[in-house]
Specification:
Length: 376
């Protein structure tokens, strides 16, 4: 049920994201969309508190709706990066955003820990339900600064249209898809991003299962791994953000993908807890660092005043990979009866994504529509 809920929500998000992006860019209302979608996500998260034992179908539906609103809102959040940064500090600002995000995840885990330590038992149901209220309030409080202070670019102007924004959004999206062949470097990067993101999706969804079934780690050990994994990631996000500005996002992504390949080889070659602990921390650092550099690279591959639309395609690549990667892992694990072999198969996604990335040419400046494919 969890897998189906994740898959359905990602499919819906993949369909809506580029259309929402076109509408936001056209109406110059990215902040309004970010605010509405975030509040909607929080509202449906709150509703989970009111469910009772046995209301599984209702829980799945509420989760799908909440996750669609959240995943779509992140597209608008990402699209503000070009506006809030320059060529010299895109990486460090992207890294700062990731670092603060991981810090928020760490703090929220600490806040809800007292309520979940009783386990997934009927007697602890009332405490578990409270975590949804805590999560919603936490999300709301720390979203208020963006709602109030974040503004759309003053230089951008609304486009006058003779139809509804929804109709115009679908038409412009169709036109972009029709002409996407001229965005060669962007297309190459999105394919590369899609491929290596499959490996990250496997980590997110199967890390705990792999640790439990293959390494026989206990629930307490797995929980501590997730909590402690945030600390080095918070620190590394600053470092790799700085590194991205120094050596460029493409080189930074290349370095982190090579780190990923080494991590997978170590975990599958040595069925040892200590090796898994070290690789888990390195994987957490590499994931955040790769996403920091990827988000920065996007700002050099998309035209100005179309950020939300093109970050919608970026969102699609990540969302679809969150379906295909885990499914591939599950199928291979089932057929071979070995999660180590399934994990080793993720090297296909990492290596192919790394190879395609090398063919992406990156300009040293923000692009406009007429120069989407720089020579260097």
């Amino acid at each position: 049920m969890w897998g189906i809920a994740i898959g359905v929500s990602m499919i819906i998000t993949s369909f809506l994201a580029p259309v929402f992006g076109v509408i936001a860019d056209t109406s110059r209302s990215k902040n309004k969309f970010l605010t509405f979608l975030t509040i909607a996500c929080i509202f449906f998260t709150f509703l989970l508190y009111f469910l009772k034992e046995g209301m599984v179908a209702q829980a799945v539906i509420l989760f799908i709706i909440s996750n669609v609103f959240y995943q779509t809102s992140m597209m608008f959040y990402n699209s503000f990066l070009p506006q809030l940064s320059s060529k010299k500090n895109t990486g460090i600002i992207s890294g700062f955003g990731f670092s603060v995000g991981y810090l928020g995840g760490f703090l929220s885990l600490i806040l809800i820990y007292p309520f979940v330590r009783g386990g997934l038992e009927p007697s602890n149901l009332s405490n578990i339900k409270i975590t949804f209220l805590i999560t919603g309030i936490f999300f709301l409080v720390f979203s208020l600064p963006s709602f109030i202070l974040l503004k759309d670019s003053a230089a951008a102007k609304s486009v006058k249209i003779n139809t509804s924004y929804i109709s115009y959004g679908f038409k412009k999206l169709a036109n972009t898809l029709k002409n996407i062949k001229k965005f060669k470097n962007l297309t190459k990067f999105l394919i590369s991003y899609f491929l290596f993101s499959n490996a990250f999706s496997v980590l997110a969804l199967y890390a705990a299962i792999y640790a439990k079934n293959t390494l026989n780690l206990g629930l307490l050990e797995i929980t501590m791994l997730f909590i402690l994994g945030h600390i080095p990631t918070i620190i590394s996000s600053f470092f790799f953000g700085w590194l991205t500005d120094k050596i460029g996002p493409k080189v930074t992504i290349t370095i982190t993908l090579i780190m990923w390949i080494i991590i997978i080889l170590l975990v599958t070659a040595f069925n040892i807890r200590t090796v898994f602990y070290i690789c888990w921390i390195l994987a957490a650092m590499s994931t955040g660092s790769t996403l920091i550099a990827s988000r920065s690279l996007m700002t050099f591959l998309i035209p100005r005043d179309s950020e939300a639309e093109f970050f919608g395609f970026y969102s699609i690549s990540g969302k679809v990979s969150s379906i295909i990667g885990p499914v591939a892992f599950g199928v291979i694990s089932f057929i071979t009866k070995s999660q180590r072999i399934a994990l080793l198969s993720t090297l296909f996604f990492l290596i192919s994504g790394l190879v395609i990335l090398q063919f992406v040419k990156v300009a040293a400046y923000r692009l406009r529509d007429f120069d989407m494919n720089p020579k260097s």
